[in-house]
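Hey team,

Sharing the Alanine aminotransferase 1 run so nobody has to redo it. Sequence (597 residues) first:
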Amino acid sequence: MWVSCPLSWGRWAGTGPQPKPRLPSHPLPVAPRAELCPGRRGLATRLLLQPLLSSQWGQQAAAKRAPPSQPWPTEPGPADLTPVSGSCRLLSLLPAHLSRVMALRAGEHSQEAANGLKEKVLTLDSMNPCVRRVEYAVRGPIVQRALELEQELHQGVKKPFTEVIRANIGDAQAMGQIPITFPRQVLALCVHPDLLNSPDFPDDAKRRAERILQACGGHSLGAYSISAGVQMIREDVARYIERRDGGIPADPNNIFLSTGASDAIVTVLKLLVTGEGRTRTGVLIPIPQYPLYSAALAEFNAVQVDYYLDEERAWALDVAELRRALRQARDHCRPRALCVINPGNPTGQVQSRECIEDVIRFAFEERLFLLADEVYQDNVYAEGSQFHSFKKVLTEMGPPYTAQQELASFHSISKGYMGECGFRGGYVEVVNMDAAVKQQMQKLRSVRLCPPTPGQVLLDVAVSPPEPSDPSFARFQAERRAVLAELAAKAKLTEQVFNEAPGIHCNPVQGAMYSFPRVQLPPRAVQRAQELGLAPDMFFCLRLLEETGICVVPGSGFGQREGTYHFRMTILPPMEKLRPLLEKLSQFHAKFTHKYS
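Structure output:
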């Protein structure tokens, strides 16, 4: 029999007697010892997965018809299609639409069973189906291929470029940003207290480290903190929020420290998800969105309710679009929450106060829990743009919103000017959360013991930086301003260069760390991508990587209106690399357009 594929690009073989597969006119090469779905289903699946298999065997398979430096994925050519045995090592590297194809029936008749051995207890068929539906484009197959290309360059393999530029993720220090001095000094002193006797550290850093260590169990960073985070640091976060919001009170007991903002976001979503069938929880998320949200909702078997940002109005959020999304969603789920990312990721817009007020009114009227992802609150560049926290706006709107509208707002040390991604520090502040639910949230946090204490230390420095009277103040302020000024210049440069290129349009990068330009792709390129089982912008980004070494993320990984194509690129590369990168990318688009026109 045949099993219907839920995707538009085909069908694949099932069990029992099978008709001869309809193969492409030029069959695709088979990877030696790289069968991804053992058994009779492997043949058709390999045809779909060929463009995503590693170059290690791709070069071997193509050696008879192309030079070793031929870009990946190779154009189809004759090959032996005899099924081979091997591993499923690439499943985790694939886009989710291909993973779903494999996951439907893959592994049911494993090679072990064919050899008379017992099947594994955990297989693709028996594992949690919600996990199979998870996708996260920011670290998807393009990034894995970029890692392979870096290894090949180190091994002396000739490429059309000398380095891979990973502009796919908002990791400032990976892009060369030097850590801010004062936070690292405090962290070093906390990790190795013997340094408190060293003359190489300023007195204010020593005082800060001693204060933090006094608040830690056993006066050591190696001890667990309480599950919500070191109490003193939670109090410092509360004071920061009060200063940020013009004196509006913040209760430390409403603040939970977390392993980056992502950890806190997932925790709150977990509290919200209930029901089955038409009563399943729906969560409204912006499109384009940060893929954490779609991934978490898939994992929890919740319903993703898309509302589209208006690209023609610089990615504005329109309440009329929220109403449309909510009305349609109520036919098949129970919407309970609304997520807003401000400043936007991947779109870089900064919401006006008027827009935030409209969103709060809408959420209150429709009884929706608000999630405010505000991790880029320090990253605002455009003239006339200003960050307004949802907490501040909600409070200043007065009754009934102040006392009734439920809100969770998130922040992180990974973004802003510090860029301390690897230390995983963040927090969530909850407002108007039911007391019993807050206890349940505390229980969830307790199961995970505590956030990493080094991340808590850096968070404390982020929310309570040096004062003007401190010896470290001048240096700290100079470093902070330099980072933010350079990011603002990069944002402006990115918009300028892309908008000078035919076929590329980039909205102003008002904030955050990314541009999300729209690219025009010729119909022949779209057709070629469909033949390879790829989204058109995925095909474009793969070719870009292979020919230029530039790694960006296709817009299809974030969501976009049908018929439009985008990619997300960080503005974090050093200025001396950013302009050549932008120009090279624009030139590649022109070359790509000419090839497929």
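Residues 1-109 have pLDDT under 50 and may be disordered.

Ping me if you want the raw files.
A.
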